[in-house]
Design a protein that fits this description.
The chain is built from 8 helices and 10 strands. It is α/β, with parallel strands linked by helices and 324 residues long. It has one domain: Aminopeptidase. Strands 1, 2, 3, 4, 5, 6, 7, 8, 9 and 10 form a 10-stranded mixed β-sheet that branches. The two termini are 25 Å apart.
């Protein structure tokens, strides 16, 4: 997540917030849910996240040798899972960064001849903040939670859709660089898509989901009151998957990740999903944000629970997620 300068003095002292789940009459309505037989493999979640947050990648700072290794890893993942490049290659060069840097962008075409003209964007940023300049025992900001966890989720969703072909709409899978530098990757990509008359339905951006919350809902969306996304996700999963987190609204997190670049350009529902709630993780932008403190069973169940929702989002006959 882009550095929250105004937030850091409060970070480790964040007190518990009053929370309330989405008041959704359809949360247990079976007619809106879909049955998913596909099973997310915990070992695949673990292996993917472990490499992406490894010391070998040296904190994945945008423009570094470490993030180049991450880019190759993500390209290989797309190739292995038959996700095609959206542009001539998987690499989308940032136009607003002084050295070579790339978003990694893949696409799965929708199966419906009409709905495939609409796009769902599933995204996460794969950059982090690199190396600590001060001399100390550990100098690598591995960025396991921020945001290798989100990249892992999006990658597993790409694998799911590639295998099941259950998306009637086309899906753009984006791994952003430059998020930590000021949302540079998404700011660079958006005008290119606009020039191509990109028909965006909605964007789900996954941000910091490596540890669970101790609440009666699984996750929250940023910009909760800007659309009916939370309500529709709960409708599609048949569970209390998404709730409202007051801290999110207080700190305006909607504006702090790559969903905002898309919202600003397209004025469509573009929101981030997160389980970082200011109480459950002490290692934001810290060298201890490492694989060993990630909760892999939680992440696996998180992906599994979201699969009915992303399936419905990519397949409903009409655009059910709307701005308020």
């Amino acid at each position: 997540m882009k550095k929250l300068y105004f937030l850091l003095p409060f970070f480790l002292l964040a007190c518990k917030s009053n929370t309330s789940p989405v008041n959704n009459k359809n949360a247990s309505s079976p007619e809106k849910t879909v049955s998913i037989s596909y099973k997310v493999e915990q070992s695949e979640v673990s292996d993917f996240l472990k490499y992406l947050s490894s010391d070998e990648l040296e904190g994945r700072d945008t423009g570094s040798k470490g993030i180049e290794k991450a880019a190759v890893f993500l390209e290989d993942f797309f190739k292995k899972n038959h996700v095609k490049p959206y542009f001539k290659s998987y690499r989308d060069t940032l136009t607003n960064f002084k050295t070579s840097a790339y978003n990694i962008v893949g696409v799965l075409e929708g199966t419906d001849p009409d709905l495939k003209k609409e796009f769902v964007v599933l995204s996460a940023h794969y950059d982090h903040i690199g190396l600590e300049k001060k001399e100390q025992p550990d100098v690598i900001f591995n960025g396991a939670n921020d945001d290798a966890s989100g990249v892992t989720v999006v990658a597993q969703m790409a694998k799911y859709f590639a295998e099941t072909k259950s998306n009637k709409r086309s899906i753009l899978f984006v791994f952003f660089a430059g998020e930590e530098k000021g949302l540079l990757g998404s700011k660079s990509l958006v005008p290119k898509l606009q020039k191509l008359n990109f028909n965006l339905y909605t964007q789900l951006n996954i941000e910091m989901v490596g540890v669970p919350m101790k609440r009666d809902f699984l996750a929250y969306v940023t910009g909760f009151d800007k659309s009916n996304m939370a309500e529709k996700i709960n409708e599609y999963t048949g569970k209390n998957t998404i709730g409202f987190l007051p801290k999110e609204a207080e700190y305006k997190l909607f504006y702090r990740s790559d969903n905002y670049s898309f919202y600003e350009a397209f004025k469509k529902p573009c929101q981030s999903i997160s389980t970082f709630d200011f109480e459950n993780y002490d290692f934001y932008h810290h060298v201890s944000d490492e694989f060993k403190v990630m909760d892999i069973p939680h992440m696996t169940s998180f992906i599994q629970e979201l699969l009915p929702a992303v399936t419905q989002i990519s397949s409903t006959p009409t655009e059910e997620i709307t701005m308020k």
